[in-house]
Amino acid sequence: MKMNDQWWKKSVVYQIYPRSFMDGNGDGIGDLQGILEKLDYLKELGIDVIWLSPVYDSPNDDNGYDIRNYQAIMNEFGTMDDFDQLLEEIHKRDMKLIMDLVVNHTSDEHDWFVESKKSKDNPYRDYYIWREKPNNWGSVFGGSAWEHDEKTNEYYLHLFSKKQPDLNWENPKLREEVYQMMKFWLDKGIDGFRMDVINFISKHPELPDGAKGEGQTFGDGSPYFMNGPRIHEFLHEMNQEVLSNYPAMTVGEMPGASPDFAISYTDPDRKEVNMIFTFEHMDLDSAPGGKWNLKPLHLPDLKENLAKWQTALHNKGWNSLYWNNHDQPRIVSRFGDDQNYRVESAKMLAACLHFMQGTPYIYQGEEIGMTNVKFDSLEDYRDIETMNMYKERIALGYSHEEIMKSIYVKGRDNARTPIQWDTTANGGFTTGTPWIRVNPRYDEINVKAALEDPQSIFYFYQKLIALRKEMDIIIEGDFKLLLEDSSEVFAYERNWKDKQLLVLCNFSSTEVVIEDEELLTRMRESKLVISNYESGNMSVLRPYEAVVLKI
Ligand code: NOJ
User: Fold this and answer.
1) Band of the pLDDT at 2, cuts 50, 70, 90?
2) What is the pLDDT confidence band of residue 4, given thresholds at 50, 70 and 90?
3) Residues 394 and 526 in one domain
4) Is residue 136 part of a domain?
């Protein structure tokens, strides 16, 4: 393969959150042998690349996003031999594997931090960010972003939990260690990395206080750590030292990156990363003050936002396309209707996204339309972010009911309940006691049922993936929003050479009449590519109907 071959432009990625995918040994926790058992299922879906969330040795304060040893496998997940076997079996099936690269922070139990804490002149002291006095930044997971350490009477920075101290990228020795570690995995044969909050690694050297809203205890440090002063330099260096020597793909998770930033990160000439994950479209149903403050989605906001990304990056950078991941609630419960139109709306959402330009990501369970979960008791929840938020909001005077409502809509555990494989106990995920309860809807929503039903969401995704392989226009075409003023319909066209695609998606539970005569004429002259309903009257879109046409 040529080093500059952009194979990832034609790929569809499937994300596995290993803890919740499949338990191979009955201990209630998903593992590598469990994934191995299910590779043929993923092959049948037709995906090209697996993104594996962290499987490294970790004390699991944040489910593996707190790494103790970058070059060892978490005991609960298996051994390095299991990993090697998994990689081999993935490649045998002509699929690829990308790993999570979590290098904004480590676990506080990582050897580097254990050393760093010992004394101010320890050789590892400067691997982390220590200060005599903290600034006013709040952590993403609540509370201060600084933790006092008794031994040396200084504070260390942790943008996430206090068990996730931030690494000091100003230190060239640290950077070199990270690059060596990346080579270790690439030399094993992995095919790239998803980079955790990678645009947080360059902090403003003075760490100034952040602005504080009224009544807020902590300041917002994000202007001083998101897309920071040396970020492009660090990413370019990583590219030159490591990535450019392998046919690897990279996707940087980048909260707070606008399309302009995205272009500068993904412009191939700049040699930084191949694509980024934006969060703008995931923030549209949050009120000021953050994700727990609920607000219904206003469809025109979503249309405007995705259209902006599609047009801005066309021919300049590259988009990643996603509705779900392990941090987001389930899309069918979020922008669809998981009660009355679960199958229709799950398919509609899939079609709406998969005909855009970029590399699509499917999160485990999305392909069978898994839904959010509503556990009665807080005790059934596991996520550190949820737990911290609950304590913080109770202290601020919010009611239990109000907080639970936010958790039901936005909690990360919605995405983390085990995959529902069949109707046996625990949805066939484990023969033991699952680490988090299985969504009770497993009776109705499960892989086995999906595979037995030719009309299932699974086969719709399979078809979308296959179409991407057949129709270059999906990869190459430009993007233009149609029916801009509609509050119910998300419609767009793609153009490439003499070809055209029309995509119409009804985001509402009512019928919508299309009145645009010019568009209707074009629709009548075109051929159906895919739809989530039996053929009907072109001028009326039924609840959550999606129609894709080609000219
Ligand atoms: C983003 C990851 O996706 C999330 O799960 C994690 O908690 C934070 N980064 C910290 O690593």
Assistant:
1) very low
2) very low
3) no
4) no
User: Is residue 149 in some structural domain?
Assistant: no
- For the stretch 413-425, pLDDT in tens is 999 999 999 999 9
Residue 284 alpha carbon to ligand 1 centre in Å: 20
Last residue of a domain, one of 411, 434, 465: 465
In a domain, 172, yes or no: yes
Ligand 1 site, residue 67, Cβ cutoff 6 A: no
User: Could you report the per-residue pLDDT of 427-482, keeping only the tens digit for each?
Assistant: 999 999 999 999 999 999 999 999 999 999 999 999 999 999 999 999 999 999 99
Q: Clarify whether residues 457 and 491 are in a common domain.
A: no
Length of the chain: 551
Q: Is 505 left (phi over 0), alpha (psi -120 to 50) or beta?
A: beta
Residue that is written with structure tokens 């494989």 in the block: 421
Q: Is the pTM of this model over 0.70?
A: yes
Furthest-apart CA atoms within the chain: distance in Å: 75
State how many domains the chain has: 2
Domain range holding 107?
Answer: 3-111+165-465
Instruction: Report the phi/psi class of residue 277: left, alpha or beta, with left for phi > 0 and alpha for psi in -120 to 50.
Output: beta
The atom number, within ligand 1, closest to the CA of 325 reads 3
The CB of 160 under 6 Å from ligand 1? The reply is yes
What are phi and psi for residue 245, nearest 5 degrees? -90, 5
Q: Is 125 within the bounds of a domain?
A: no
User: Which protein residue has the closest C-alpha to ligand 1 atom 11?
Assistant: 65
* Residue 413 CB less than 6 A away from ligand 1: no
Catalytic machinery residues: 196, 253
